[in-house]
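Below is how a single chain appears once it has passed through the pipeline. First comes the sequence as given, then the structure the pipeline wrote out for it. We keep one example in the README because the format questions we get most often are answered faster by looking than by reading.
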Amino acid sequence: AIPVENIETFITNAKSDDAERLLCVAYYYQMLVAYIFDDLELAIKMVEEYLDLEYPLEGLVVGTEVVFLYGLTSLAQARKTNEVIWKNRGHESMRKVRKLAKDCPKNYHHKLLLLEAECAFISGRIKKATEKYELAVAMSKKNDFIQDQALSYELASKFYAEQRNEKKASHYYGKAHDLYLEWGATGKADHLRENSPF
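Resulting structure:
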């Protein structure tokens, strides 16, 4: 994540300048970085700060990305804690992304598929999760969302690892790593390599 002293100073300055739009963007990027580097606690904190804003950027790309990230973060927290509140928040985000996917499938259908895969995973619906992860990977590739394709491979690899399919998990982990590099996210690629279970 962004070094705490830098982001806290930035957020404090934005709050004192009454720059809510700037705060929206700051919370989004901190949430994104926290989520992709497996810091669920910070990602959740940033979502909650974002949702507490008087005028969050709903209807704009940043606002819709927050909804997607909040869904992923909530479902990851649900898998970790098995608390119903997180499952419900994940489902609520999925409902919103479903509407976005209906209105603009090229930008959001693969995101919906990934949320559905994660939801099926935590619900123990293995066949459905497998289908949705594969579709999320394929659709994010088809629609040229390399960062979401990398994320789809990464989450699918975690799913396959839990199913004890080490061959597929390892292969998908490698695909995620390579796509993060292609996207230019060398820090994330390094993070995957350093924390690889394979």
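The chain has ten helices and no strands.

See the next section for the split statistics.
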